[in-house]
From TrEMBL:
The keyword Nucleotide-binding applies. Belongs to the ABC transporter superfamily. This is ABC transporter ATP-binding protein. Residues 10-230 form the ABC transporter domain. Gene3D superfamilies: P-loop containing nucleotide triphosphate hydrolases (3.40.50.300). Keywords: ATP-binding, Nucleotide-binding, Translocase, Transport. Pfam families: ABC_tran. It comes from Hymenobacter cellulosivorans. The lineage of its organism: Bacteria, Pseudomonadati, Bacteroidota, Cytophagia, Cytophagales. GO terms for molecular function: ATP binding.
Length: 230
């Protein structure tokens, strides 16, 4: 029997992204084509303004390209209905941001449960169980009833990682996840992401300004003025 090659988790084909304001037109991405395969850990690097965040928001289906095609598991995103697109964003993609984006009024475990509230068919008990398991996984099993302000920056980022993992996404998109952390905590977060990738097979795309961190990932995508340079 012939083995059919698995489609990349994400594929960007001949992407252009132009931002148009009333006074100026910016070409943020130009002729970008790339694939992210299951189990990869890819870093995205380049100087400020080169299009890294734009690339991540297209990968996260938060924005659409001006030209070109984005595919998820071999299917063009354009062919999905708005409703399917919303569940794709919620179920297939987990986000981690530089500034954590936690809700300060909610406990750690409630923050992690949050994305699961939008999952139909999951009981409150199962949500709690899943959230606690994810917190255990990121080493915060003893902090579940704390509030974000009672945690260090590195611990907050761990909560954000647990929240991203709770939905069991196919891919994690991280926008400078260590950007607000000192080098020791940054290394700890990087160790955790590498562990998730190597031991659990989590697919990760990470924007970083840190060359040493990028070198620890399996592949580097480098952008300059909206174009790939490798
Ligand atoms: N919503 C927007 N409207 C207009 N222009 C935008 C918008 N978002 C980004 N741009 C422009 O697109 C280009 C790429 O921006 P982007 O944020 O993707 O870069 P970046 O590489 O992530 O930068 P940084 O490292 O500073 O975060 C920049 O010139 C930016 O000014």
């Amino acid at each position: 029997m012939t083995k059919i090659a698995e489609a990349p988790v994400l594929r960007l084909i001949d992407i252009e992204k132009i931002y148009q304001t009333s006074t100026v037109e910016t070409s943020a991405l130009n002729c970008v084509s790339l694939s992210i395969n299951r189990g990869e850990f890819v870093s995205v690097m380049g100087p400020s303004g080169c299009g890294k965040s734009t690339l991540l928001s297209l990968m996260g289906l938060l924005d659409e390209p001006s030209v070109g095609t984005v595919e998820v598991n071999g299917r063009p995103v354009r062919s999905y209905s708005e409703k399917d697109l919303a569940s794709l964003r919620n179920e297939k993609i987990g986000f981690i941001f530089q500034s954590y984006h936690l809700i300060n009024d909610l406990s750690v475990v409630d923050n992690v449960e949050l994305p699961l509230l939008y999952r139909s068919g999951m009981s409150a008990k199962d949500r709690r169980k899943r959230a606690l398991a994810m917190l255990e996984k990121v080493g915060l099993g003893a902090r579940t009833s704390h509030f974000p302000q009672q945690l260090s920056g590195g611990q907050r980022q761990r909560v954000a990682i647990a929240r991203a993992l709770a939905g069991e996404p196919e891919i994690i998109l991280a926008d400078e996840p260590t950007g607000n952390l000192d080098s020791v905590m940054g290394e700890e977060i990087m160790d955790l992401l590498l562990h998730l990738n190597e031991k659990e097979g989590t697919t990760i795309v990470m924007v970083t300004h840190d060359e040493a961190q990028a070198q620890r990932t399996k592949r580097q995508i480098r952008l300059l003025d909206g174009s790939q340079v490798n």
